[in-house]
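Q: Could you predict the 3D structure of tRNA-2-methylthio-N(6)-dimethylallyladenosine synthase?
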Amino acid sequence: MMSNLRYYHIVTFGCQMNKADSERMAGILEDMGFEWSDDPDQANLILYNTCTIRDNAEQKVYSYLGKQAKRKHKDPNLLLAVAGCVAQQEGEKILRRIPELDLVMGPQHVNCLGDLLEQVLKGNQVVATEPIHIIEDITKPRRTSKITAWVNIIYGCNERCSYCVVPNVRGIEQSRTPEDICSEIKLLEQQGYKEITLLGQNIDAYGRDLPGTTETGRHQHTFTDLLYKVHEVSNIKRIRFATSHPRYFTERLIRACYELPKICEHFHIPFQSGDNDILKEMKRGYTHQRYRQLVNTIRSYMPNASITADAIVGFPGETEQQFQNTLQLVEDIGFDQLNTAAYSPRPGTPAAKWNEQIDDNTKSDRLQRLNHLVGQKAAQNSQKYLGKIEEILVEQENPKENNQVMGRTRKNRLTFFQGNINSLRGQLVNVKITESRPFSLTGEISN
Ligand code: SAH
Ligand code: SF4
Ligand code: F3S
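A: Sure. Here are the predicted structure tokens for tRNA-2-methylthio-N(6)-dimethylallyladenosine synthase:
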């Protein structure tokens, strides 16, 4: 490596996938001898790991990039890289907009960052966005947390939801083998990790692309099979997973979650809309009745399971009545948390070209009404914790009050209580809940 290149800084936008990718890229850079700098203006290499799920996510990226591109005019040795979903979507086009870039790389190329940078250091401007078979990563990610870790199990998405760019930018489904996943988890256990979250855009698709079927014709490596394996392979205390697709969530999977004690009773199952016609236009492949039935089945096994989801308002053609159906679903299910978004037309997706686009005022009005209901439901759910004793996995200090620590319940509610982080980090502590807010709790140690 050139000796004047020393510090790197990564800015990450978007979902957990991107966060996990950034940790891997940071690991590769540190293997190459770079050191992390908190201050982007001190860094010799700045990498933006970008998101394009909605237009505002994409615009944010350009405003950040523009600033550093200017800096490069004063400091020509500065290396600028764009990774992630905007890089994949725009490819070479991004160079026309920001010619100062040294490297443009799509999500499938994350594990190749080292080789790509070598080419950059030879003086090339590099664009790596062609689809490839993702090679197994053998480098060590630089993980942000010492307690909880992400483990990718499947990349890409083969669904074609009519609003969504993810299949365009993340490519086709590619599952890692159970062996590779299990050895990563064993390593995490050795490093002292207490919780893992298995990641996939459509985690229920896990294994479909791996060879092998059982005698009954069922695929050998379903996500449920993987959960049984992962459960046995280490002493990691808690296992989570995301994201689930309502269309493929099976009762066999629910039973596994019920039987396996390390699997936390929290399920993130985006429903997107509570209206059957909209669901059909979205190409989601289920009805609201089917979604309700799925939640009922989960609750019949695990009555207190926490259910969270994503929803979109203002999808093309959505009427007030159809929006009301979304409100009704939220009212009836009473989600513990819901990520809501106004529909944003995305390049290369079918719904972006449809006529009946909803105006921005209506979208933001619906978003506000939905968020209001979500807050109410979350507050009601939080109140159920009052007086109860919950097992908290302590992750870090409360950044706002350093005599407090913070962690999560098994159901993923953020919880604060008084204690010393040095003795409590990574511990499972029983905490009696004394205060509730919509999305967090406060309590005290209970013995
Ligand atoms: N794979 C996951 C979600 C991936 S994207 C799933 O199938 O549910 C994360 C969330 O962003 C989606 O659940 C959806 O609610 C939202 N989203 C995706 N495309 C969007 C768009 N064009 N406009 C607004 N929200 C969108
Ligand atoms: Fe997008 Fe649908 Fe795939 Fe989720 S399942 S990533 S919403 S296409
Ligand atoms: Fe965004 Fe890409 Fe994730 S578009 S939400 S970072 S898969």
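Q: Anything worth pointing out?
A: The first strand starts at residue 7 and ends at 12.
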